[in-house]
Write a sequence for this structure.
């Protein structure tokens, strides 16, 4: 099975973005744990985006969605790939990508919330910023699972400072460094708060930054007596969902993601 992963975008000068760096790390981690046996993965080089805001909000989402769609058009033709995975924590271009693609397309948020719904009754999402948290809440509503969502939490940490820690220290060593421990302490505190106050059974790490810290967070939650709470990394979920769809010979239903060329048109919606 061969999959192509499309990170949200690449900077104007084609230097690797945070998303590319973290996607590579997460894939390496999954391979080392034996979670990707039989799966060959290519990572898209991305597309130039002029992001003048520096934020992660609706404006940037609209900008990068167009780039995602163009890359999906490129990869869904022929027989080079079996599936496409989009890794953005705000699900850029997901519905349009599913409409366009002739092969399975999975998105991080869509996959994670469906897995959370499968294994439990109440989940919260851990997001980087408030705009992203609201976007994810709207997505959950669109996917028909808002009755299982408790809260969409914003960590409120600048992405550049979190990325500095991820780049500076290796996996497994970040929680030992003072700044890494402080960051993990803050994330764990937010996790425990929603576990206790919102009575959730599962937590979804929607953005890639906390996903890169997931093992350290897991260890801390276990130490605090929350070993029964399930942790779901959104990008990991998307890769596994792609594998399941390919193995089951399924793709997104055209009636659910219709274009004007849909042949078996329903009589009403």
């Amino acid at each position: 099975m061969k999959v192509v992963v499309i990170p949200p975008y690449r900077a104007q000068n084609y230097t690797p973005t945070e998303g590319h760096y973290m996607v590579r790390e997460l894939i390496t981690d999954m391979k080392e744990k034996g979670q990707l046996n039989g799966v060959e993965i290519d990572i898209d080089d991305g597309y130039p985006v002029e992001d003048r805001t520096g934020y992660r909000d609706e404006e940037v989402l609209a900008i990068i969605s167009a780039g995602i769609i163009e890359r999906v058009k490129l990869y869904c033709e022929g027989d080079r790939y079996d599936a496409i995975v989009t890794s953005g924590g705000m699900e850029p271009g997901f519905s349009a990508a599913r409409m366009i693609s002739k092969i399975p397309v999975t998105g991080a948020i869509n996959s994670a919330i469906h897995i959370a719904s499968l294994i439990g009754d109440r989940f919260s999402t851990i997001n980087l910023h408030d705009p992203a948290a609201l976007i994810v809440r709207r997505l959950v509503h669109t996917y028909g699972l808002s009755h299982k969502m408790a809260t969409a939490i914003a960590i409120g940490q600048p992405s550049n400072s979190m990325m500095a820690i991820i780049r500076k220290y290796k996996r497994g060593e970040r929680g030992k460094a003072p700044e890494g421990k402080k960051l993990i302490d803050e994330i764990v505190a937010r996790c425990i708060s929603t576990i206790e106050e919102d009575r959730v059974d599962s937590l979804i790490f929607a953005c890639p930054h906390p996903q890169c810290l997931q093992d350290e967070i897991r260890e801390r939650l276990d130490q605090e007596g929350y070993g029964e709470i399930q942790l779901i990394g959104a990008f990991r979920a998307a890769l596994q969902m792609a594998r399941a769809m390919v193995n089951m010979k399924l793709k997104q239903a055209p009636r659910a993601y219709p274009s004007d060329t849909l042949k078996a048109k329903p009589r009403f919606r």
Residues 126 and 205 are 5 Å apart (CA to CA). Residues 178-198 form the longest helix (21 residues). Strands lie at 2-6, 10-11, 40-43, 48-49, 83-86, 105-107, 123-127, 149-154, 202-205, 230-233.
